[in-house]
Amino acid sequence: MKFGLQLFNLTLPVALALPLSLAHRPQPVGALESAGTPSEAPQVVFEANKGQSAPQVKFLSRHRDSSLFLTAAEAVVALRTDKKTATALRLRWLGANPNPQMVGVQPQAGVSNYYLGSEPQRWQTNVGHYAKVQYRSVYPGIDMVWYGQKRELEYDFVVQPGADLRAIRLELQGAERLELDRQGDLLLRLPGGATLKQPRPLVYQQINGKRRAVEGRYVLAGRETIGFVVGRYDRTQPLVIDPVLRYSTYLGGSGEDLGDALAVDRTGSVYVTGESFSANFPTTAGAYQLSPAGGGDVFVTKLNSAGSALVYSTFIGGSASEVGERVVVDRQGNAYVGGTTASPNFPTTGGAYQTASGGGEDAFIAKLDASGGALVYSTYLGGSADDAGDEITLDSTGNVLIAGVTASTDFPVSAGAFQSAIGGGEDGFVAKLNPAGSALVYSTLLGGSEDDVADAIDLDSEGNAVVTGVTASPNFPLSARALQRRLRGDTDAFVSKFNADGSALVFSTYLGGNADEEGDEIGVDSAGNVYITGITNSANFPATPGAYQGTIGGGEDAFVAKLNPAGTALVYSTFLGGSADDAGDGIAVDQAGNVYLTGQTFSANFPVTAGAFQPTIGGGEDSFVTKFDAAGSSLIYSTFLGGSGSDAADEIVVQAGNAFVTGSTDSPNFPTTLRAYQKALSGGNDAFVVKITDPAP
After folding, report:
1. What is the H or E stretch that residue 526 is in?
2. CA distance from start to end of the chain
3. Can the keyword rRNA-binding be found in this entry's annotation (predicted)?
């Protein structure tokens, strides 16, 4: 089983978890360390003790603000809770096997070398790194595993069938006191005023395909001791801990409010954008625009890391309607929003690239300062006909790249652009705006003789733009070695990669079957592999052997496709769906290559995993959240997310093993958490923001 720990100003899916960063971890005196490449090594590693620590320590892990020492009988965590306060927490497992076998699991590429003092016999070289440390049979039938998720430490108790969870008793030394709150969460009050929270355990069994909840709670067995009480359960079956709904909140006023996109900063704060038709949409004092200007306005809302309060919330808009389609955040906390406006008086800033509407609807890009109280810059982007901004992204130097669609023959393009004239109907576009928002670095069209839409954009490690969308053009621009060289249906998805200055295609390909497809979201991993999700109606959509779902479920299905960096071959491709309609709208990929997907489903038999947070559809249309393994061959978890009405998720972001999802709901019983900022539906339709913690090691 797994336990979760929460530091009150951070949300961490771990027990005795700490915000650890290998990038800043101190080296022991005289120690030299070499590590593998980022793709080879996890961000938390464990070293076997070869003499660099006290003899009773078997494994250790060192970090910027903390160190972990694992012995046969206890784990010692030395941490700094602020600049002046250091605390040592000792976690002991009472009544346990005094000599459990301790083994390093999953050797990693890096090693550490310790040159301590001037005596070579004290030096330790080639000290191996491990991803996990396993205690075997720490209690009868119960193992314990320590590991890292990104920069966080975690431990699990693995309870085998027949073992008794109640045997586990933990002694916690170093806290001033232990408390249980009204929700059954364990609070560790530390010296200096900091508090750690270990949420109440969630326990269940999956028997004959049905989820059976098992009552489980902490008990205080002494001043420093905790135990566990569980209800009756089938001891021939394993106990399971499901993905934790860390927080879930509505966000809206009395009208219609739609959550379209979100971003997460380094502290875990969440930035949400979309469209609001509510005059009383929640805004904060000092925000840039406290009330709507007309029609539907863009909103930008920053939630704290617990999802319990607004840091700031503001409108951005003019007298007509606009929508925020994507938000990204930089390291300084500035929020960049891209979308579409029909307002002739949409707020722009002096010196911006385009301060007046070109005509009809235009794309826009706006940069909010870290307080949410002022625009750093804001610009239109468009020609004399209709133009729409569908998605933006931010490169390492502060340039903003935007993808969208235009019907304007005078859409602004740059000298040397890959395509300077509209091909016919509507074309996609890709533009790059400089850090000041005052000039285009490049701007190019992308399309053929029919309608083409660039729906999503991401960057590879070199800053090249990769886009996906939908095309009806039989002459859509392709590369010489394209994966698919002809349009197979009325519309196909496409995937196109531009070079750094937008003057040429690195690759471009169709992706589809003999019916209709659209590419709705895209992601790129550190190796340059490209991940796409969207919608397919084609029974012959290209699925690969061994993929999770090789055939269409019925109606339209979501799909997930992974292309190699050259865009010439599928690494894998799979359907995802049930017997009704399903759509993939958001995709994210973690450092291990696992893919997270969100979207909407009408299928009561949409694929969910054992122990899903919500194993059955709540009503009409539900959101879903699904995590694939790196091979695209199996589900790590998959769950419905919704209430009795209609629920539609639009975007997913992954950080440190947490999945953040936003979308829209009209369900009065959409699942929310106890300390959510907004626990009830305020109007006809509200945005929602959800954080899900992955329990899988």
Report:
1. none
2. 11
3. no
The token pair that represents 427 in the structure block:
């074309």
Residue entry with tokens 């009472």 = 94
Kindly state the percentage of the chain with pLDDT values over 90: 64
245-693 belongs to CATH 2.130.10.10: yes
What number of residues does the chain have? Answer: 697
Return all residues near 334 (Cβ < 8 A) that are at least 6 apart.
367, 368, 369, 370, 376
**Separation CA 665–CA 679 (nearest Å):** 13
And the tokens for 649? 């998720």
Tens of pLDDT, residue by residue over 275-332, are 999 999 999 999 999 999 988 999 999 999 989 999 999 999 999 999 999 999 999 9
- In 10 A of CB 546, how many CB atoms? 12
Check pLDDT > 90 for residue 187: no
Query: Which residues have CB under 8 Å from 121's CB, separation 6+?
Result: none
User: Token pair of 542, please?
Assistant: 């290209």
The domain limits of the chain are: 6-241, 245-693
Bridge partners, 651 (sequence order) = 662
Q: What is the pLDDT of residue 609?
A: 84
What does each C-alpha distance from 479 to 108, 482, 483 come to in angstroms? 39, 5, 9
Element (H, E) at 81: none
Give the CB-side neighbour count of residue 413, counting CA atoms within 13 A: 22
